[in-house]
């Protein structure tokens, strides 16, 4: 739900020039500010020599400051996409302000920029975190006409990383005696939050990477896109010392009342109570650092559910190669000694002016070899259950990758249509099995994911479509 905050706004270098305006938060388009007046010069665009802001080069200023409803407000990475002149009895100006890094509301002071190293902890609320943690255990008890709903304490889940400490904590609350016309009701609420502690003072921007990494871990484990629902920054790592800075960003939707149904709970690849939490979290952050953009592309297949099928297929096929390069860097097409001998013989057979062609004679594995080697990485019973004939899957995936990369016409495809539209999901499923293996998730959970969990449908539909071609 969009909320409008009236306030007074200024540039940090010119506090005497203050302008009234309304800050909008909670919109799907992200925070925005509408000024009744102007703070930026008009008509300044990216790439010009002019400056839009006092004492700030370029068209984006690190921060604008303001106050609203008794709170300090910092707009991070502010720029003006447009200014309007209102003609009337007295001419006036209205200016729109957008932000590249969102808005901080609250705290003890204004922040100079998203890069200011002043914070020690970020608290995040995420979809599915409470369910995934296994820490919520409310149980009703009936005894002698009394109904008691118990909410018990749960020890936090903790994982230590090189630069961060990751903690999941359960928070509890209750309300009772709410009187309605026909009833009286009370509520007990349990929710879990992710707290990311830095070992040194960090900027708001530096906290984004570990927060997004854990968001991706949840999405991988649940097989549903997890959204960040709120973010709060603290300057002191001890809660209660200093005020929270509520961080409102474009990609943070409002809290959801969606339910975790039995099917979703059953389909989860794994939950925190079924794994060695510290080991899995440490492994996941290592994977994120190693794969980088490759992991973002894979997880993007979950976050972008409505993209074109061909995009999904090409992205999945591309990730196969990139993951193989990282996880199996020593893979070669032929025996290294044989390769060395062949290259030397070719060198001797070629005239000196033609030996440059040898630069393309490399020992890298072919794409289909990469597919089969990556398929050998997870638990083999799970892979057999998922794909059936690994060699045929590798062939079809290689063909699909080539057809899409070279924009071959549909009639030139060497893949049955029934298989074509099942290949992206089963290839993505294999990649998640590979991640489970890298996380040190048990073979039992890998097999369960394929036989009755979130990967079952991808496997079933693919094998049904392909069985007459095998």
Could you give a short description of this structure?
By secondary structure, the protein is of the alpha+beta class. The protein contains 13 helices and 15 strands. The mean pLDDT is 88.
Describe what you observe in this structure.
- With 470 residues, this protein is α+β, with helices and mostly antiparallel strands.
- The protein contains 13 helices and 15 strands.
- The protein has helices spanning 129-133, 204-222, 262-267, 277-291, 293-303, 309-327, 336-349, 367-375, 380-387, 390-405, 417-438, 443-451, 456-466, and strands at 3-11, 14-25, 32-36, 61-68, 71-86, 92-99, 103-106, 119-126, 139-143, 146-150, 157-160, 164-179, 184-202, 228-234, 245-248.
- The strands form 2 sheets. It has a 6-stranded antiparallel β-barrel.
- Strand 2 and strand 3 (32-36) form a beta hairpin.
- Helix 9 (380-387) runs antiparallel to helix 11.
- It is globular and about 85 Å long.
- The mean pLDDT is 88.
């Amino acid at each position: 739900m969009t909320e409008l905050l009236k306030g007074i706004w200024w540039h940090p270098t010119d506090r005497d020039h203050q302008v009234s305006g309304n800050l909008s938060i909670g919109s799907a388009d992200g925070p925005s500010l509408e000024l009744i007046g102007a703070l930026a010069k008009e008509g300044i665009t990216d790439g010009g020599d002019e400056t839009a802001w006092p004492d700030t080069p370029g068209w984006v200023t690190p921060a604008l400051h303001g106050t609203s409803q008794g709170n300090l407000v910092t707009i991070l990475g502010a720029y003006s996409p447009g200014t309007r002149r209102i003609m009337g009895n007295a001419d006036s100006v209205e200016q729109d302000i957008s932000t590249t890094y969102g808005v901080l509301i609250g705290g003890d002071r204004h922040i100079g920029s998203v890069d200011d190293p002043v914070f020690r902890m970020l608290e995040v609320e995420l979809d599915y975190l409470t369910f995934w943690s296994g820490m919520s255990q409310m149980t009703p008890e009936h005894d002698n006409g009394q109904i008691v709903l118990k909410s018990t304490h749960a020890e936090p889940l903790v994982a230590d990383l090189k630069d961060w400490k990751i903690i999941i904590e359960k928070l509890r609350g209750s309300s009772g005696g709410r009187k309605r016309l026909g009833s009286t009701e009370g509520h007990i609420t349990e929710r879990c939050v992710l707290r990311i502690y830095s070992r040194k003072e960090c900027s708001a921007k530096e906290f984004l990477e570990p927060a997004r990494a854990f968001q991706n871990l949840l999405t991988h484990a649940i097989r549903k896109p997890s959204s960040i629902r709120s973010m709060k920054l603290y300057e002191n790592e001890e809660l209660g010392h200093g005020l929270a800075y509520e961080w409102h960003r474009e990609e943070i939707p409002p809290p959801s009342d969606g339910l975790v149904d039995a099917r979703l709970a059953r389909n989860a690849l794994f939950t925190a109570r079924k794994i060695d939490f510290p080991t899995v979290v440490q492994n996941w952050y290592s994977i994120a650092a190693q794969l980088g953009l490759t992991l973002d592309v894979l997880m993007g297949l979950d976050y972008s559910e409505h993209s074109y099928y061909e995009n999904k297929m090409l992205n999945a096929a591309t990730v196969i190669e990139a993951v193989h390069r990282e996880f199996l860097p020593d893979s070669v097409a032929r025996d290294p000694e044989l390769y060395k001998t062949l290259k030397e013989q070719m060198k001797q057979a070629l005239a000196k002016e033609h030996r440059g062609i040898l630069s393309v004679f490399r020992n890298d594995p072919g794409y289909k070899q990469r597919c089969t080697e990556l398929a050998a990485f997870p638990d083999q019973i799970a892979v057999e259950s998922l794909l059936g004939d690994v060699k045929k899957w590798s062939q079809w995936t290689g063909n699909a990758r080539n057809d899409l990369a070279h924009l071959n016409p549909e009639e030139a495809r060497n893949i049955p249509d029934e298989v074509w539209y099942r290949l992206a999901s089963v290839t993505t499923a294999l990649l998640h099995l590979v991640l489970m293996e890298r996380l040190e998730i048990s073979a039992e959970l890998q097999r369960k994911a394929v036989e009755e969990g979130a990967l079952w449908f991808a496997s079933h539909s693919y094998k049904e479509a392909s069985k007459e071609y095998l």
